[in-house]
What we know:
This protein has 111 residues and is of the alpha/beta class. The chain contains 4 helices and 5 strands, in the order βαβαβαβαβ. A 5-stranded parallel β-sheet has the order 2-1-3-4-5, with helices on both faces. It is globular.
Amino acid sequence: MNKMNAVVIDDNPAAIADLCNLLEAVPQIELCGCAANVCDGLKMVHDTRPDLIFLDVDMPDKNGFDLIDLLKRNREHIPYIVFVTGYDHYALQALKAGAVDYILKPVNAEE
């Protein structure tokens, strides 16, 4: 089975660390990197062309939905999106934006 390349985009360093620790235990996922904001995340997606993005919604300046809009507007490679957030009220918007999953923080290994 081929591994899926993934990036994590979240402004919370503790949340990034927790999620990265969980992802490193999943043999089907190769973690390509992490970004702390949409601007850096967009560059990382452009540079690494991941299969999967674990994306926070609420970040300074721009949010996770802005990243998806920028990818679509720039006709960038659009990976599968898994939103990872502490807010349940964005779930419907995330699915409408094309997310394949929506996970509430704090993330646990079963999810």
